[in-house]
Amino acid sequence: MKTQENTGPELAAALAQAGEGRGIEREAALLLYAKASTDDLLRIAGDVRARGKGTVVSYSKKVFIPLTTLCRDYCSYCTFRKDPGEPGASFMTPEEVLALAETARQAGCKEALFSLGDQPERIFPEAREFLRQQGYSRTLDYAAAMCELVLERTGLLPHANPGVMDRAALERFRESNASVGLMLENVSARLLRDGGPHAKAPDKVPALRLRTIEEAGKLSMAFTTGILIGIGETLEDRVDSLLAIRELHRRYGHVQEVIVQNFRAKPEIPMAGHPDPTLEEMLRTVAMARLVLGGEMNLQAPPNLSYEDFPRLLEAGINDWGGISPVTRDFINPEAAWPQIALLRQETEARGFVLRERLALYPEYLARAEFLAPGVRRRALPLSDEKGYAREDAVAVQAAP
User: Which of 27, 131, 287, 312 lies at 20 to 30 Å from 339 by C-alpha?
Assistant: First the structure.
């Protein structure tokens, strides 16, 4: 790893502050990001993770349910979204959703991750017609109904990731979801300018996404969010995005995990020629996230997006691998296969950690009654052990039709 030359007192003070594990402020974060050696960042981030999280590294055995690939946003890095008429452009019917969820239940999954495009009914008549046939006017309402169906019929715990949500949608999702998610991605409005990755993505306005996260906090909903690096943002943008997440968590205590996700170029996207972040850049950013967010936050980086180098992410202070599916691919990054759980365990334990399966809700949130609706808690508790992790031998209970 390269070492950058700066041993001044300001850098030493920032390193010492970071080592306390309480979360560093903007000035110290930018100094460390720019000047600290990678060795120092990883060492301190690892120490902070060890004090805050011990040696347990978790993952969730999930099924990925791509409810609809139609989306009104045209992000320059996305392969998931489709327009009507394109191959793969569709809504899943309730029957298809249930069939996939049941396959996952039989495979031992406990989480149903619902991913879908943002508000396609706003621009596509085909989306409005499908929703009308199902008895809904909004994709958000249809998604909530499918979460309810999966929870009741299969016992899988839904985690909805449907884009920007208003309070009414969040209130309904709360009744069936163990947790919900929305990637903040970045707080920089500059990325919305012409030629930027979010220029044609009205739902990527940072204020809208921050408002969704805040509304979930007001409703005591366990929330997953994170940043996407390598799409044209600056180091300052990354730090500011992490600080915005931290501020909302300090206010409401509901951000159960933060993801640091790295951009990967694909041939079919407008950003096909844009360079991927290097492994060292990813490691430094993950370590900085740990130092900004502190030792108590659950920090995740997707293993499949670092390919064979994924075990190196443990050096940077993560304590979670995210959702790993034995039955479905990563539809957001279809070229990047998830590692087999056996390999994940082997590589994790070879580095002195203990791999534990978790639910869609982290143990510390499962222990707090206010973070789960009664119907979800009734389904979640039999799947968890005395420490709040998943019972790996447990199987979600199927209900009668």
Answer: 287
Q: How far is CA 51 from the centre of its chain?
A: 23
Across 185-214, b (16+ Cβ under 10 Å) vs e yields: bbbbeebbeeebbbeebbbbebeebbebbb
3-state SS class at 82: strand
Cβ atoms of 104 and 63 within 8 Å: the answer is yes
Query: What is the H or E stretch that residue 12 is in?
Result: helix 9-19
Domain 50-382 belongs in CATH node 3.20.20.70: yes
Tell me whether residue 54 is exposed, middle or buried, using C-beta atoms within 10 angstroms of its C-beta: 0 to 12, 13 to 18, 19 or more.
Answer: exposed
Domain boundaries, the chain: 50-382
Cα separation, 58 vs 67, whole angstroms: 26
pTM of the model: 0.94
Q: Which residue has the tokens 């994940």?
A: 344
Phi then psi dihedrals of residue 237, to 5 deg? -60, -40
pLDDT tens digit at each of 401 positions of the chain: 444 444 589 999 999 999 999 999 999 999 999 999 999 999 999 999 999 999 999 999 999 999 999 999 999 999 899 999 999 999 999 999 999 999 999 999 999 999 999 999 999 999 999 999 999 999 999 999 999 999 999 999 999 999 999 999 999 999 999 999 999 999 999 999 999 999 999 999 999 999 999 999 999 999 999 999 999 999 999 999 999 999 999 999 999 999 999 999 999 899 999 999 999 999 999 999 999 999 999 999 999 898 899 999 999 999 999 998 888 755 566 555 657 888 999 999 999 999 999 999 999 999 999 999 999 999 999 999 999 999 988 898 887 55
Residues in the chain: 401
Residue ranges of E strands in 327-386: 354-358
Q: How far apart are CA 102 and CA 149, in angstroms?
A: 11
**Are β-strands 320-324 and 354-358 bridged in parallel, bridged antiparallel, or unpaired?**
unpaired
- CA distances 280 to 19, 44, 46, 285, 315, Å, are 20, 16, 15, 8, 11
Residue in 389, 399, 302 with CA at minimum distance from that of residue 110: 389
